[in-house]
Amino acid sequence: MQDLVSKHFAQFFDNVSESIYSFPTMMQRISENLHLIADDIHLGRYSTTFTLPISKYEPEGLTNSTVSYTSEKGFSEEVFEKSFVTAEGGVVTTKLNPIKGYTWSEEEKISLNHLCLLSFMLCSRTRLMGLMYKVQRSDSLTGALNSTGFQEIAGSLIQDGVIGQYSTVFTNIKNFKIINQQVGGHNGDIVIQNLCNSTNEFLGENGFFSRLGGDNFLALVKTSILQKYLAFLQDINMTLQVRGKEFPLHVEVKTGICNLTPQSTMAEVMTNASLALNVAKKSAFKDTVTFSPEMFEQTMHDKRIASQFHDSLENQEFLVYYQPKVDLNTSKLCGCEALARWKRDKIIPPAEFIPILETEGSIRSLDFYILESVCKDLRNWLDRGIQPVLTSVNFSKIHLSNLKLEDEILSLVSRYQIPKHTLEIELTELSDYQYYDRLVAFVTCMHDNGIHISIDDFGTGYSSIKLIKNLQADVIKLDKSLIDNIKITATHNPDKIVSSAIIKMANELNISVIAEGVETTYQAQFLKQAGCAMAQGYLYNKPLTHDEYEQLLTGNRTYDTKRNK
């Protein structure tokens, strides 16, 4: 009897690879093999019971009790039972009943024990491989599909010719860093888990949902329910426990959509919705954006810019232009802002490359390149007896993640022996910056070393009031969007009201105000009457080349706005 069991099951064991991941198939194969030897071993019934730790990776079809064989001849109540302990502390129990009216001998029970052991080894191997298969395709935090699992399903839909029935939806949680700060990292994980669970429950058979990492999620959704799905994403609510109290949370998301076609490729499935999401994330007004071919062209353009940047920097293709700043009370030159221009076949304005470098991270290299260029110019002018004015150099907020930023700036300034009171660091894109302790530390260090600090684009972000209250800034710059609508014809002008209020508040805090984008004498007069200290814009000068600006420094530094108008 033992030889019979070994013959059938050993051969089965060696040829099991085709069903190695599928537990139901494995049990079916065991049943088929039992049929071949059932009469010879007088088997009436075979069943396996699984008592296993709960795992989000458990293979499909693994139930508590699985009956793999029942004889048409019936079975006796006598049972041969054997239990095995799994590596993680679970128990697998196999029960065998002889056919009705038969009793196994002790010698036969030795063979049955061998049968149970072989069966357990097969089940364990299948379960292990099933677990590995699922782990490789699942997100460790949530159990949702990961990128590998998502692409495998998308590939099947493409191969089956049904991908055109779906849309891809790429989702990102808005301000997730702030949520983590509010509720803590553990609760942040719970937010991710709850979102995945509720989304999978909502989609059911109508889609596939994956977590690609962090707070980024990609779904394949049947286009027939797309609008319902988008409505669902706008209404995600949950309650967390934070420091022993209930914390209600409404989760807001940014979403990119791509409507697929029968011809859609894997690259389009994985990429297009992501491109749309990037557009949504940059928009202050749109939370949901649908992909268009122009987005792909823009992405290719951005990649070309990013790929050309480092060689261009090494080849010194970036130039410093200087835009003068004017004292509104005296009409005299009182400062300037150093601006980057990229000289290739033509001069490329900053709006075409600065946002790309901000996103890609190369802005760090450019900012320091401009700072060093300014230091060289200042040193040259000082050595020739030309007295410079306060010069502002823009630094992106992403520098603040560098804890050595202060030392690197001070080292560069010291290398060229530049009087620190002639330099100003203008911090940009701060409206949504969350790490105030780091920001305060940087500003304090610059002040302690005699370098001025200016806050760019003031009035454009929700955190502006907090910035002006907490930071020891020397100057705030009124954003051009506030200045553009200051016109003679305007009767009730909200921008005038807001600008006047900001200027008044800053003056009471002993912070100077400069307005950018001043183009008319009316704007200059209004700002002067409101108490604004300085202005820059085309009313006075466009950004000037090095030589043009040097002529200004060595000539008459007083502006006649009537002449310049």
Kindly report the CATH topology of the largest domain: TIM Barrel
| Shape label | elongated
Under the CATH scheme, the architecture of the largest domain is Alpha-Beta Barrel
Strand order of the largest sheet: 12-13-15-16-17-18-19-20
Question: How much helical structure, as a percent, in the residues?
Answer: 40-55%
Structural class: alpha/beta
Would you give an account of this structure?
The chain is α/β, with parallel strands linked by helices and 565 residues long. It has helices at 2-14, 23-41, 106-136, 147-159, 176-183, 185-203, 226-233, 266-282, 293-314, 354-360, 363-383, 405-415, 436-448, 464-470, 480-483, 494-508, 521-530, 546-554, 561-564, and strands spanning 43-51, 65-70, 80-85, 91-98, 166-173, 207-213, 216-222, 236-242, 245-251, 253-259, 288-290, 318-327, 333-343, 347-348, 390-396, 423-428, 452-458, 475-478, 512-515, 534-535. The strands form four sheets. An eight-stranded mixed beta barrel has the order 12-13-15-16-17-18-19-20, surrounded by four helices. Strands 6-7-5-10-11 form a five-stranded mixed β-sheet, with helices on both faces. A hairpin with a 3-residue loop joins strand 13 and strand 14 (347-348). It is elongated, with a radius of gyration of 35 Å.
